[in-house]
Specification:
Strand content: 25-35%
Number of domains: 1
Structural class: alpha/beta
Oligomer: single chain
Number of helices: 7
Largest sheet: 7 strands, mixed
Distance between the termini: 40 Å
Radius of gyration: 17 Å
């Protein structure tokens, strides 16, 4: 779809635009798999050490490589060539930085209407602390309006890099749903469930959707894409 035509015809309805970007994510992931690339933790650690960094920001490293190496170069296949895919972009509220967005997809023609699509990235595994972080520092940022405080959007995405061979994605999703069912600070309208439309469009099974309440605002709908890095990330 041509981006200009999209903006002209979908100024208030961004469903096609969002689906195109989510399909691009899966397309990019399949391209990554086709290259046979492997991410070795020791190599990544060495890179950070050479830069004088004591902390290994694995999530940022995997996100940056995925976006720069696969999403940006392939976006033209999905009619998104005139859209900007930004990394680590500040979210502003009352002229004060409210946080940073992992991935922000924006067209210059949508900026004035405060319409953009963001994706929060997380590392996921069977470890309890990673699953809890996904909920409390991911989903809750949307339900609490820490993200999208002023934007005219009620849809967003979460993209997980699932690592470690012992991780079972279905069990991780089950844990997340159990956590949401009893969470005192997140109102969940719809638990994570298979996103059948995107699964059918991409032939990729680990895509989910959920819906959460926000005080005084429309509910936020989240698309969860679990990228299966179990075979490409070597701890």
């Amino acid at each position: 779809m041509n981006a200009d035509l999209f903006v002209q015809n979908h100024s208030d309805d961004l469903v096609s635009y969002i689906d195109s970007f989510n399909e691009l994510i899966i397309y990019g992931f399949k391209s990554l798999l086709s290259t046979g690339v492997k991410y070795n933790h020791s190599d990544i650690k060495s890179k950070f050490k050479k830069r004088g960094r004591k902390r290994i920001a694995l999530e940022d490293y995997l996100r940056n490589d995925f976006v720069n190496s696969y999403l940006k170069q392939d976006r033209k296949h999905f009619g998104l060539d005139e859209f900007i895919i930004g990394l680590e972009i500040s979210e502003i509220l009352d002229n004060i930085e409210n946080g940073s967005l992992d991935i922000k997809l924006i067209s210059p023609k949508l900026c004035d209407n405060n319409q953009y699509y963001i994706v929060e990235c997380k590392i996921l595994s069977a470890l309890k602390k990673r699953k809890d972080y996904y909920v409390n520092d991911g989903i809750m940022r949307f339900s609490s309006s820490q993200y999208y405080p002023e934007a005219n959007m009620n849809e967003a995405g979460m993209m997980a890099f699932v690592i470690n061979e012992s991780s079972v994605i279905e069990e991780i999703v089950s844990y997340i749903n159990d956590s949401l069912s009893s969470h005192s600070q997140i109102e969940t309208i719809k638990m994570l469930a298979k996103h059948q439309r995107l699964i059918s469009a991409t032939n990729y099974e680990y895509i989910y959707e959920s819906e959460h309440g926000r005080d005084g605002r429309k509910n936020i709908k989240l698309t969860h894409i679990m990228l299966d890095y179990r075979s490409v990330y070597l701890p």
